Amino acid sequence: MKREAKTKKAVQVAIVGGGIIGTLTARELSRYQLDVLLLEKEAEVGWGTTKANSGIVHAGIHEDPGTLKAKYCFPGNQMFPRLCEELDVSFKQTGILVVALAEEEMDMVHMYYQRGLERGVPVRLLSREEVLAQEPNLSEDVVGSVFAPEGGAVMPFELAAAAMENAVANGAELMTESPVIGAWVEGEKKYLETPTHIIEADVVINAAGLFADEIARMFGDDYFRILPRKGEEYLFDLELAGLVNSIIFPVPASKISKGILVIHTADGNIMIGPTSDNVPAKDDLGTTYSGFERIFSETRRLVPGLDPRKVITQFAGLRAASDRGDFIIEFSPNVPGLLHLAGIESPGLTAAPAIAADVPKMLEEQGFKLTPKENFQPRREGVVRFRQLSRKEQDELIRQNPAYGRMVCRCETVTEAEIVDAIRRGARTLDGVKFRTRAGAGRCQSGFCQPVIMEILSRELGIPAEQVSKRGAGSEQVKYEAKELLGKGVS
Ligand SMILES: Cc1cc2nc3c(=O)[nH]c(=O)nc-3n(C[C@H](O)[C@H](O)[C@H](O)COP(=O)(O)OP(=O)(O)OC[C@H]3O[C@@H](n4cnc5c(N)ncnc54)[C@H](O)[C@@H]3O)c2cc1C
Q1: What CATH number labels 91-152+230-315?
Q2: Which long-range contacts (CB under 8 A, 24 or more apart) does 456-463 make?
Q3: How many A from CA of 319 to the centre of ligand 1?
């Protein structure tokens, strides 16, 4: 489509990228009387690095002093309980243990403890006996540990989707399947081009994750690079739930990684990872045998009972590491009104609420006048999680809405009503449903429930089953008229 034929749209603030940084920023800006538009290239928000990480809300003891990572990590951590309560997102304050397996590693444990005290992070030193009393399945080799009780775990995709839902309820606009393919400046205004639109904006916020350097370059702003660094993760069946109660870190062997961890996820599964390998390509999301071997050999030193046969799925994510080795949170020195929220590698998920909360202040420092909305609604309407209810509450729900009585995902106990609710809140694909509800995320990895979820997506979105995709155009699941295969009802 020629540029002249594209739909024109003017907004005050355009955000490029709907990861955790872009969505929480949209929510923060929706507190003010501003036109805010978020452009996301994928079919749903949260599908970049935000969907493929360890989901840890870090305590704030790992980051080197003087870095932006340190500046934003602990404040971000402190915002999680309220944020997740307002948005009704799963968050568990499991606590974080950094464990020494040899006497000589205790120096680092003491260093983290001191750092925690200096930063105001709640921390305790634990003896070998205290650690083993708290985590009986840890290796007998444990010597001691620092414990940070306010570290925890969140479902990152759920948080990004919820933040966007709340931002939209407060007046922000979302355009998915809208990759920015061109950008330029004319006078005071900045322009973004997508396959269908030309967006004019006073401020552009670059939250494009791995592609933030490419968005900057489209504006002729070529002063940083994003270097992808891969992390593989392996998720265990719920059968192993309870093997650890908190998130277990080793004493890291290198400066660029916090080590390979045993993670108690917000959903209660055990997950191990991540690796930390520089890779050349920004789409290299494959897992590897060498990654698997490294992860198991490292984590079984910490928790010997980790059984590779109980792995139900694996994935890899790419950290958007900058060539500065730190976050880049600044207005461009070359393009006025272009704000970079780039290079947000780990602990970017933890830092995200604090980074987003700073954006209105940064806009005001540049002379933008922000007027708060009187009717801003911080709360998102609650989500029903059928599996977490008592039998009595479940019966009552089924009486009110029989779709709660139709079980779609047996592994994770997800009902038809929850899937319909997820679709009404914005899920458009099988992955969107899975990450919002857990339907298809369990032991059978959607082997049984996928046709039924496809049927519900097809019905609710009013599209033929051949158009139902795993994660947007190009990942459709059936290539022929599928009506006969579907429509068999739910179990
Ligand atoms: C393996 C691994 C484990 C990690 N574990 C943790 C952890 O436990 N705790 C923690 O705090 N942090 C962790 N992190 C870091 C954390 O995941 C990231 O800091 C965070 O997700 C970054 O979010 P983002 O919004 O910047 O990027 P993204 O989530 O990648 O979002 C960028 C968005 O921009 C979109 N986009 C890109 N180009 C365009 C374009 N041209 N037009 C429109 N949209 C575009 C993408 O589709 C994407 O949705 C981990 C990272 C990895 C890889």
Answers
A1: 3.30.9.10
A2: 456/408, 456/416, 456/419, 456/420, 456/423, 457/423, 457/427, 457/428, 457/429, 457/430, 457/433, 458/486, 460/420, 460/423, 460/424, 461/423, 461/428
A3: 7
